[in-house]
Amino acid sequence: MLLATGLILTYAPGLSAFASPSTEASLSIQQSAKKYEGVMVDVNTGEPLIGASIQIKGTTTGVITDFDGRFEIEAQPGQTLVFSYMGYKTKEIKVGNIKLLSVEMIEDSQALGEVVVTAFGVGQKKESIVGAVTQVRSGELKVPAANLSNSFAGRMSGVTAFQRSGEPGNDGSNFFIRGISTFTATSPLIIIDGVEASAGDLNALDSEVIESFSILKDATATAMYGTRGANGVMIVKTKSGENTERAIINARIETYVSMPTKVPKFTDAVNYMNMYNEAARNYSDNAKLYDADFINGVAQGLNPYRYPNVDWYNELFRDATINERVNFNVRGGSKRVDYFINANMNHEMGMLKSRSKDFYSYDNNIDVMRYTFQTNINAHLSSSATVSMNLGVELRDTHGPSVGTGDLFGAVMNANPVDYPIFFPMDVSVNQLGTYSDYVKWGVYDNGNIAAAINPMAELTKGYQDGFASTVRANVKYDQKLDFITKGLRFSALASFKNWASTTTKRDRGYNKYVFKEEKDGQMIIRSLGDEAMHTLGANRTNTGDRSYYLQAALNYDRTFNDVHNVSAMALFNMDQYDTADATEDLIATLPKRRMGFAARLSYDYANRYMAEINMGYNGSENFAEGHRWGFFPSLALGWNVSEEAWFAPLKNVVHNLKLRGSFGLVGNADSGTRFMYLPVVNLGGQGFVTGDGSGGWTSFNGPVFSRFKNEDITWEVGYKTNVGIDFGLFNSLNITVEYFNELRKDIFRKNESIPNYMGIAAAEVYGNYGEIKNWGWEVSADYGKQLTKDLSVQFKGTFSFARNEIRKDARGFNPDYPHLSTIGQPLNRLQGYVYAGNLFVDADEIKNSPTQMIGGTIAPGDIKYVDQPNKNGVADGIINSNDRVFMGYPEVPEIIYGFGPSFKYKNWDFSFFFQGVANTSLMMSGFHPFGNQQNRNVLQFIADDYWSAENPDSHAAYPRLTKTDHPNNTAGSDYWLRNGSFLKLKNAEVGYSWKFLRAYVSGTNLLTFSSFKHWDPEMGGGSGLKYPTQRVINLGVQLNFK
After folding, report:
1. Are residues 95 and 144 in the same domain?
2. Which PROSITE patterns does this chain map to (predicted)?
């Protein structure tokens, strides 16, 4: 069933969608014609049918419906209008005096049905597909996000997606198809208009450019891609033109406000000093403390240079930013040439305050301008030959500070509020000659390490960098029908070129560093830390880029015999080359990467009831020695469309669709992250070795050594994939798909233990096919649509995906002495740490009577108590060290991801919301511990609220005893710091109003988060939480559709 809500095909009312008649009869019709208007909807769901055709029977005059399913057409009373839409029964209405028409269309199970794009751009009827393929409507991808991948989570069954950062330009989501089945090279293959693309290319696409979006998951769907399709395939087809008399124009203008979902909170300055004093006393009786006068001065807000109280986070970062996005496209054409042209501008500002203007002459806030252009032209040379040209361009202009935002957040974490001001006044006394009074006197903390003495504001403002990157993707495709040879035969050829180039220029300056020395006669005196003139200028420019070429030739055959035997086949050849323009002295890196492959498919179905499909890929890779360079990857799938059986007819009023399908096949992977693994690598610089017996001294020699040994037997990583699925529909309104999948990935590329250098071969690496991983799970997706009243309709979409993996073999995975350290039997990306014994140490007696903890530091009451793990004999040795770590919690990559939400339409109003969540995932807090080893790290509020102390000897406190420096025993990874990373978000919500050619709407992203983890957005994962936060977005938009 084709639901039109996922399409954006616009129409200016009254425009003809086909060539106007030129006969004399047609002129007389037009002279006496009347205007008829109406709406076309699905009879069951009430959803408007967008882009449906209305044609005057016997003529070529016609129109198409707009995005509300509405139409206007001029016809003579008594003429017949023919209403048609893909997947629906054609309806004819003879017009008369009634000028307002409501046309309800009925789904035609015998019609073409929804066409789903599968491997190498082949369109298949949804009802005839036997592989695991999910088609996503382009409308579902329209969320207020700068990156397309941020719309994936929960909307696509089988796709795991999560966003770790909200930084403009670096805020795309990580995504996987059906979990992870290998150690490296885990990303799915992305195909845009038939050519492999990067995640960056995908993120740059605007949703209005997309015609179809398919996700290929099992071996039948991906086997034709052979070496490239092992981790699943995403296929995107951009829009093409249409044969219309006049151009259809679409414009969208949006303004959106971005603000952090949540940021960690720090305690206040007085709390900080009191806690520091306590930590210092715990560390040493002679520790330097904040005295009462200083604490009182800060508390009373006295001289801010002598008694600083700096809120570093609020000094550097703003609460919200306002951004803009504009999209414009035009679509049209004739019988000979049609076109689709799209232009998009997206402007994003960062959270940084523009403080550099307070000190220097430049603004270095994050500012990203992205321009994308897409031009698709089809030239129909004849009734059997077509040339298509697609050109996509992305221009990205970036501006920002000379240091990374991660460094700035780290600086805020490592800067406490009281040790120094942002800067000292210009007229302050300096205890040395040469004041350089024309430069800012930045305050820092004197920890004895000049390089580590940093000022967050000085770091933010000391410089800026400008970047410009351009991506050009150009495709030319030729299609030729060969019906003169045999009906249904077609030839196609595709050539593609992509070029990416990037230039980054960084300009910055050092800065003077000052610390408070003393106050004398009411005058504050400071001293320079190091050279007082550290404001040297610096500049750096880097250029990088790459280019790729792709060639493809294919024969397709599609034919039906005796109305029941449907046969289709494909034979295809492709080759590609990738060149990098990076400046490098690495000989291997400068060599172009090349691949070559053959693919074939044969499918058959009988009367749309019994289906079979065979696919194969035969691919070559340069990464293997002769005799191993070619891999063969076949697959077989079978399907039974039960609902098409004659005996099932009485049940179709309840179960309108029931299909069973299953597949098995092989997929391959040749990408290990290291090229030419079968060849040895020799280090000509050599490595020292010595000879002699020591009595007469040692003799040292240098010479060439192997840093990697050859392995000519290394070969393909192969996945054995099984898939079983059932598709069923109820009451012509609910469609459900359930699938189970299982993959065993064998011969995974792994680096074995390095050979010890006492063997005389310089600890060389050895690569081989040592790994094996099992990955399995299941998926459910549901779509519901119903017309509740004449004016009210509702739709609902839900997905649930579960994927779990297990390491079966690994070169270094088994530990015979400590089985709990073995990776065998563990999932990928599972966390490791010490097991918390359930309480902090209460007193010295408990410490004395417990296993000796040798993780680091002196153990005292209030420290974390751990469990001593048994060895292979089941015996605990009484010592807790690195051998006592275990795997704990769930993997960092969620095993469960789900989403659900309804949409409503009432007259001209529409409203929708969507929830998305993850489960079976854990995060490890780290890097946030107070005070630390450098410059007195700040204190997060949750620590100040509940930490162990003599006044609060709670053995279950949220934080152990305070220490002046990082205490290895308490900062080590353990389940004391392990947290549940599950969450449920109100991911998107939107309300809109449509009137004629205009739609206005308000939408939002990341509006609410429900989670047991409260310190920062759990989607960002573990660590300290002090990195660029994910963003809550409120979006105002207007969409116009006009001539």
Report:
1. no
2. TONB_DEPENDENT_REC_3
Give the global pTM: 0.84
Identify which of 640, 716, 654 has the alpha carbon closest to the alpha carbon of residue 229. Answer: 716
Angle at 195 between CA 190 and CA 198, to 5 degrees: 40
| Cα dist from 550 to 226, 227, 496, 555, 575, whole Å | 16, 15, 5, 17, 6
CATH number at residue 211: 2.170.130.10
pLDDT in tens, 601-631: 999 999 989 999 999 999 998 888 998 999 9
Residue 559 resides in a domain: no
Which residue segment(s) compose the domain that 139 sits in?
Answer: 115-242
Task: Tell me 562's DSSP state.
Answer: T
Q: Taking phi first (over 0 means left), then psi (-120 to 50 degrees means alpha), and beta for anything else, what does residue 581 get? A: alpha
DSSP string, 635-661: EEEEEEEGGGSGGGGGGTTTEEEEEEE
Cα(141)–Cα(148) distance, integer angstroms: 7
Instruction: Report the distance separating Cα 112 and Cα 566, nearest Å.
Output: 13
- The SS3 assignment for 525 reads strand
Task: Establish if 14 belongs to a structural domain.
Answer: yes
Token pair listed for 435: 């004041």
Q: Are residues 66 and 129 in the same domain?
A: no
Q: Mind giving me the DSSP string for 853-915?
A: E-SSS---TTSEEEPPPP-TTS---SEESGGG-EEEEEESS-SEEEEEEEEEEETTEEEEEEE
Do 40 and 129 lie in a common domain?
no
Q: Which residues pair with 192 in a beta bridge?
A: 195, 236
First to last CA, the chain: 31
Confidence of residue 1043 (pLDDT cuts 50, 70, 90): low
Q: Output the CA–CA distances (angstroms, integers) from residue 836 to 970, 974, 993, in the order listed.
A: 11, 7, 55
Measure the CA–CA gap between 807 and 278, rounded to whole angstroms: 46
